[in-house]
């Protein structure tokens, strides 16, 4: 048993062992110039509930995932590429990326 | 070889048979092509039909653009082949960059399903060549996200190059300039929110879509 464990450990490259898991959150928001009907609907509902203090409601979306990378900078770079390729359509949206180290 | 129109089908597409039947009704040959295929085979024109490809998750068309067949669709379009995206197909065309701009949620919080008057703004496209400029067409629309948006520079580019092919006569969904359909600069790729294939067979009570599909069929010859 001990031998098998040792064998498994030695087959892992140092590169793999050094990788960290990063918790990523991408917040996707509608551009200010784009109408946001969901926000408008919520604003009307809030107003109907007498929360007239709340205005300029805008609804976006949040995507959570984890990334295995050497550094937070590398995780940031991969996430930016993911946003650009798939998650965000720059004609209508912009995004904010939050990265933290996975606990444990 | 007879012209053969390929209709791309994604999981969630639901207008492929409407397009198939109405193209055949007008005398064209058509075949369905599953999105996982990586070749088009014999193909003289492509229709990206309406529906909710990949559940419209993330954004309509955002995931469909990465289906294997899309590489071939893009190659075909870039080589000048006629391509038309209807409704969800229009959303796929903007997402994959074959057409500029994007389709956002309808301005009023409604999914719209009705027949609306449209006007042909340009006949310099594979979908409008048989129509006349200014011709009014009554076409069914059926969408929740058909509000065409783009920045000022793109709008300028569209108008300068005569790329707006179809517009609504009134503001139905919030689209800039009431845009219902646009083409690329050379006119071989067209995207539109209205469904011409639902206004072909007199059985449906309206036939104004015929002139559009006839233009497209002609372009595939």
User: What spatial form of chain A do the alpha-carbon principal axes imply?
Assistant: elongated
Indicate how many domains the architecture of chain B comprises: 1
* CATH T-level topology of chain A: Mth169, Chain: A
In the predicted model, the low-confidence regions of chain B spanning at least 5 consecutive residues are none
The CATH architecture name of chain B reads 3-Layer(aba) Sandwich
Structural class of chain A: alpha+beta
* The number of domains of chain A: 1
State the fourth-level CATH superfamily of chain A.
Phosphoribosylformylglycinamidine synthase subunit PurS
Major sheet details of chain B: 9 strands, mixed
Topology:
The complex is a heterodimer of chains A (104) and B (221).
Chain A: H1 2-11, H2 14-18, E1 20-30, H3 37-48, E2 61-69, H4 72-87, E3 93-101
Antiparallel strand pairs in A: 1-2, 1-3
Chain B: E1 4-9, H1 16-25, E2 29-34, E3 45-48, H2 68-78, E4 83-86, H3 88-95, E5 102-104, E6 112-120, E7 136-143, E8 147-149, H4 152-160, E9 164-168, E10 179-183, E11 189-192, H5 210-219
Parallel strand pairs in B: 1-2, 1-3, 3-4, 4-11
Antiparallel strand pairs in B: 5-8, 6-7, 6-9, 9-10, 10-11
Tell me what the structure shows.
The complex is a heterodimer of chains A (104) and B (221). Chain A is an alpha+beta fold and 104 residues long. In chain A, 41% of the residues lie in helices and 28% in strands. Chain A has one domain: Mth169, Chain: A (2-Layer Sandwich), CATH 3.30.1280. Chain A has helices spanning 2-11, 14-18, 37-48, 72-87, and strands at 20-30, 61-69, 93-101. Chain A has a three-stranded antiparallel beta sheet, with helices on one face. In chain A, 12% of the residues are buried. The mean pLDDT of chain A is 87. By secondary structure, chain B is α/β, with parallel strands linked by helices. Chain B has a single domain (4-219), classed as 3-Layer(aba) Sandwich (Rossmann fold), CATH 3.40.50.880. Chains A and B meet through α3 of A and loops of B.
């Amino acid at each position: 048993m001990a031998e098998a464990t040792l064998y498994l450990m030695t087959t892992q490259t140092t590169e793999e062992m050094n990788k960290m898991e990063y918790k990523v959150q991408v917040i996707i928001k509608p551009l200010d110039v784009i109408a946001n009907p969901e926000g408008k609907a919520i604003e009307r509902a809030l107003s109907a509930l007498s929360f007239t203090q709340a205005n300029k409601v805008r609804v976006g979306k949040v995507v959570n995932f984890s990334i295995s990378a050497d550094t937070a900078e590398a995780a940031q770079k991969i996430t930016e590429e993911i946003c650009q390729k798939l998650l965000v359509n720059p004609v209508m949206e912009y995004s904010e990326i939050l990265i933290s180290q996975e606990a444990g | 070889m007879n012209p053969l129109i390929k209709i791309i089908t994604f999981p969630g597409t639901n207008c492929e048979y409407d397009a198939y039947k109405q193209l055949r009704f007008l005398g064209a040959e058509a075949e369905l092509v599953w999105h996982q295929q990586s070749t088009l085979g014999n193909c003289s024109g492509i229709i990206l039909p309406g529906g909710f490809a990949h559940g419209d998750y993330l954004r309509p068309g955002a995931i469909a653009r990465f289906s294997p067949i899309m590489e071939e669709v893009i190659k075909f379009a870039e080589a000048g082949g006629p391509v038309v995206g209807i409704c969800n197909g229009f959303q796929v065309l903007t997402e994959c960059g074959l057409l500029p701009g994007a389709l956002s949620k309808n301005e009023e919080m409604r999914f719209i399903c009705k027949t609306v008057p449209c006007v042909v703004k340009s006949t310099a496209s594979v979908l409008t060549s048989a129509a006349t400029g200014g011709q009014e067409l009554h076409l069914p629309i059926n969408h929740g996200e058909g509000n065409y948006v783009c920045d000022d520079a793109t709008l300028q580019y569209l108008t300068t190059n005569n790329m707006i092919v179809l517009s609504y006569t009134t503001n139905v969904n919030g689209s800039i300039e009431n845009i219902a359909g646009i083409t690329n600069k050379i006119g071989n790729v067209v995207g539109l929110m209205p469904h011409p294939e639902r206004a072909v067979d007199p059985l449906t009570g309206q036939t104004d879509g015929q002139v559009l599909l006839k233009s497209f069929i002609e372009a595939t010859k």
